[in-house]
Amino acid sequence: MEIYENKEDTCMFLNRQVLPAKKAFTACAGTACIEDDLFKIRKKKRDEILHSKRQLQHPSTIVLGKKFERMYPMVYKLYSNDNNMQLEAAIAFSEVLKTGVRKPPIKEVAYLGVIPRFVEFLMREDFPELQLPALEALINITWGTSEIVKAVVDNGAVPSLVKLLDSPSDDIREKAICALGNIAADSLWSRDIVLDQGALQPLLAQSHEHARLSMLRTVAFTLSSLCSGTPPPTLAKIHTALPALARFTNSSCHEILECACHSLWNLAVKDHMIQPIIDAGVEYGLIQRLVQHIGHCCSSVRTPAIATVMNIVDRSPRQVQAIVDFGAFPLLLNVITNRYGTTNVEKEYSCWTVAHIASENENRVQSVFEAGLIPPIVKLLRTSDVHNQVDLLKAVVVVIFHVTAKGSNEHVRYLADQGCIKPLCNLLVSTDPAMLLWTLEVLENMLNVGEVQRVLAEDDNYYADLILDSAVIGRLYALQKHNDANVFSKAITIYKTYVQVEGSKEAVEGTGDQLSKLQI
């Protein structure tokens, strides 16, 4: 990881963050959060920034082979007892790791056996000029593979780096924090080692009100590394960081916001974390700030903000009214309607947030309708690809499910008038069991509403007429042989309850050719 000469801009490494874990999908109210796309986007962004910064700092073309040839005698100098030779070699290694090529020679340098020596130099309090290039080299080396990071840890770097957090030099402290963040971001094992070595408290001490911006960025990055991973760290290990994370959500720096929101997102996937997060953030207006960040111009801030709000409304119903009062609905509407150039992941998380709110009661459903959220959600249902946008469609269908389960007859009729029934029926060809089950639940709810109205009015079942055409009857028939027990059970229930015996045989026979081709 490259280190800048400009001390106010030493946070290039922010983009090496490990993303929070995705929230597990459950058949009740869970959500299938997508992590892979986010990771690819952030990795691409990190690599682009890394390359552009190196090109900026090293405008001349550097041939790695020629640069690397002089490293062998530098190994000798590095292990010498002469201070000047040690310093010359440490600077040389630091520079070669910052070359203008896209991939620095981390593995090649590590295989020269220099890691133990750099770790030794960390303790040279009598020679801080040597500590700095040693730190820079280790920061770049810890951007390497897990094998290389493990070698750094096994050579005792973590306790030495933690001790450097008490250094009188701002530069040394900041670079030590950076190295700890890179180590913690590599794996759960390395993350827990950094926490167990007592890094958190001296790290938090660096985020005081007089700290320079680059220091705050570095602290925020390292906190995000310490909060990341699946599973996240225990509350006992990380609870003292919650006030700092809440405070960082008020920052005007989008890198700090990004780290804080990702940290909170990852921690909020655990039920027992929600209330401590909320309590720690009261002083800093955390809930309001998270809601505001749903409308942030940067997707790297907006996405984790939406995801954190989603987790809060799912796991802390007491906060739902506050989230609504702080203006979540208009911002979620903007995300769903693509006003910000939003991604499918952000639309998915927004729909899950709406679904969790609508799941409470009819009044909540009414508030969703009054916010104008239903038409664009139904539009997503009509326009999304059943095979390539499964997670987004599941979130959309769950919103519709809660409307049909908790809403009034008028709410259900409005859904039908918006044209949601045909695209819902089209989802019965999905190969995703969860998608099929949610869709069947929605159709059953609609049919039940229609049946009640039929009995009261002594008329036809309005929704049965819209839903049960020959194609849908054929799909219901086929789903009775589905491998998933919940799917075939629900299909059997709907089939036996609402498909008329007289017409069903003829309808099924009429679609015999279609049934033979169904791959369900």
TrEMBL record:
The cross-references to SUPFAM superfamilies, in alphabetical order and at most eight, read: ARM repeat (SSF48371)
Q: Name one Pfam family in it.
A: Arm
Q: Name one GO cellular component term.
A: cytoplasm
Tell me which domain of life the UniProt entry assigns to the organism this sequence originates from: Eukaryota
- Keyword annotations from UniProtKB, A to Z: Protein transport, Repeat, Transport
Kindly indicate whether the keyword Zinc belongs to this entry. Answer: no
What InterPro entries does UniProt report for this protein, alphabetically?
ARM-like, ARM-type_fold, Armadillo, Importin_alpha
Presence of keyword Transport: yes
Give GO terms for biological process. Answer: protein import into nucleus
Which spans of this chain does UniProt mark as ARM repeats? Answer: 156-198
Show the GO MF annotations: nuclear import signal receptor activity
Give the PANTHER family listed for this entry: IMPORTIN ALPHA (PTHR23316)
Instruction: Give the similarity note.
Output: Belongs to the importin alpha family.
Q: What is this protein called?
A: Importin subunit alpha
Q: Which organism is it from?
A: Artemisia annua
Which taxonomic lineage is given here?
A: Eukaryota, Viridiplantae, Streptophyta, Embryophyta, Tracheophyta
